[in-house]
Amino acid sequence: MNEVSISVIVPIYKIEAYLSKCIDSILDQSFTDFELILVDNGSPDNCPHICDEYASKDNRIKAIHKEHGGLLSGRKEGLKNAKGKYVAYIDGDDWVDKFYLDILFNLAEVNNSDLVVTGHFREFEGKIETVKPSYSGVFGEDEIKSLILPKAMYNGAFCEHEISTYVWSKLFKRELLSEILYEVPGEIVMGEDAAITYTYLSLSKKLTISKIPLYYYRQRHDSILKSIKDTSIEFYRLGVLKNFLKVKLSPFLNKDNLSTQILYYLYSMILVRSGGLIHDASGKVIFNPFLKAKKNSKVIVYSSGSFGQHILSSNSKSNFFQIVKWIDIDFHKLNIGDNFVEPLSSIVNTEFDFLIIATINPSAFKSIKAELVLMGIDNNKIVQINTDEKEICSLFGQLGFHND
């Protein structure tokens, strides 16, 4: 017999400035039949004390302290201590709407679903963007296998997922999650959410997708800009992810479909993490994904989000492009090296050769491009990202990904 309906698991590491807001939003839920498992993942700041303090005041809260072992290990430790019928993961620097658990639970129970997927809000520098699935509905096992899973990681438009990778903004059945979570290799640091979500999806017999956004994802500068210190380790970890997905999903997908999905998913991750420009061990650029833009081109970078920051950081190492300006419609104070974010109105057509829109999402790219053209930006100067499958395969060969 389950003691509670939902086990809410919050992995915690170096987020003391945000943790109380996260916990308070969970304790304020309209739905009360839950336990809250706070997993202190060896945090060196005040997070352990915050966890213990909350646990001492509310018997629904369990504080667990462990040595630091990465986000995945925190999620595993939380599940080991969970007793709920369902599991909801919430990151400790995010927060949720008052009716978050209530709606998740109802969607799962009414539709007898193994997995519930919802929309979310993205908060960045005080501005909030609504992100919703492209469709909603209830899908049975046959539809999951034939319609959802073949497009889960790559739906034909680079880079769009049929099902988002995040484990947050979802509700899992604890027993089914226990079948797959402990098998996810600890070496997977990037893409651990995808390893969990897509493997779990392949075993699900009923899926419910809702467009209702109730989860607030906080995108922070200090969590975005993480440079690749050792590319060999980084690519090895992605190789582990590739092989795990290949082994777990091959019983459900044909070889070509699975290879294409994994290829584009890993490519998108490599682009964002590397800042687009791929360097070899000596620092030489071996792959430039920005079509038309050549070495020494005068470039404007649009967007100060994750990809934009990595482009600036990566280019500062090789000086491949001459970055003449960094702009964003969401103007705020931020600088990398000698480049400061400037408002959209500061662009002058004659000062640059090409403009890079720093997004790998094609829908976002089209929307931003249309707005830039309205502002008088030369359409021919806005560059696309190279998505040629043969060239991406060649890149992966150079990086060693064809060697299992």
Automatic annotation (TrEMBL):
Q: Where is the Glycosyltransferase 2-like domain?
A: 7-145
| Domain of life of the source | Bacteria
Q: Does the keyword Transferase feature in the UniProt annotation?
A: yes
User: Which InterPro entries does the record match to this protein?
Assistant: Glyco_trans_2-like, Nucleotide-diphossugar_trans
User: Is-annotated flag, keyword Transcription?
Assistant: no
> What are the alphabetically sorted keywords of the record?
Glycosyltransferase, Transferase
Q: What is this protein called?
A: Glycosyltransferase 2-like domain-containing protein
Organism annotation: Algibacter agarivorans
The organism's lineage is:
Bacteria, Pseudomonadati, Bacteroidota, Flavobacteriia, Flavobacteriales
